[in-house]
Amino acid sequence: MMIATATLPEASVTCASCEACCCRLEVMLITDTGVPERFIETDQWGGRTMARSDDGWCAALDRNTMACSIYEQRPLICREFEMGGYECLAERAAHDL
Questions:
Q1: CA distance 59 to 38
Q2: Band (1; pLDDT cuts 50, 70, 90)
């Protein structure tokens, strides 16, 4: 049985080398995971997303560590975004990493 390598996590991507590319993406809140209200923005139609800093990065990103400051309460989409997976590698490539 052959497995496509594009679906397997990239071993060289770790929390230490990640550079938080996914923290530049828009994150829709579709379930309640306990995200603190200060990190939530609500649009005119009631859609909820993770708040972003003026420079576009997720407001929950700790800029000193480049790690999520609310990791245990992070949104479902962040929990499902696999470090080193296809989407991760595509974001890294888009940022020349």
A1: 9
A2: very low
